[in-house]
Amino acid sequence: MSAMAVRVITDSSACLPDTVADELDITVLDLHLMQNGEERTTSGLSSLELAAAYARQLERGGDQGVLALHISKELSSTWSAAVAASAVFVDGAVRVVDTGSLGMAVGAAAMAAARLARDGASLEECYDIAVDTLHRSETWVYLHRIDELRRSGRISTATAVMSTALANRPIMRVNNGRLEIAAKTRTQSKAFAKLVELAQNRADGEPVFVAISQNQARETAKSLETMLTDALPEGSSFMMMELDPTLAVHAGPGAIAVSCVFADERADG
Q1: 35-61 pLDDT tens trace
Q2: Structural domains of the chain, ranges and CATH numbers in brackets
Q3: Quick count: other Cβ atoms within 10 Å of Cβ 221?
Q4: Residue 66 pLDDT
């Protein structure tokens, strides 16, 4: 990215591999991971941290503007801190995207915006491509167990009880920034088959960008990638990466997140 270009900032929940972030000159801010006795907990970025990061990038970009993409406001305080931080800067120099998502759906939007920025696009154009990418994306999460997510409070008690009672291996979906049950399955193989079916139906015959993030489940994730490769249209592309530690704490060992960017928006929006 040239020195005089819109700067793109995201946080570690986007799961962007370092090589990709470096190549596209995307700034990745680490969310906080803390040890509280035997429990590991997470916290979002503060408005002070974000304002300092935005100021540094504005300077680097020659005041062309900063596009900030953070984890869903329903799952972290980071978005509201980002909005407060952006208000420090005049003339809308920092645009904060309300992503309503997490993981590589956010990562893919950051990548799309950074590619445009590198070609000299305006802040508005970068914002538009990021929002468009998010509208065309879908994220499903396979949980090997639900204990960590239930403890974290990231899903409602009713959802946790229902998923525990009805499914040993639930598939969750990110919808309007929240995690909800997309499918109730009892075994890993049924869960993977269902996830592949959901992605295939949504693809509607068009190539898909697929990013698979895993937590202590590399071999399992590879087998899921093979299933998706076989099922999705020719021309689809795939990436695999580690689930960010701040997400892994809540998702638990064996969790796999599949973020897809499709050719078109959902018919139901």
Answers
A1: 888 888 899 999 999 999 999 999 998
A2: 7-135 (3.40.50.10170), 137-261 (3.30.1180.10)
A3: 24
A4: 98
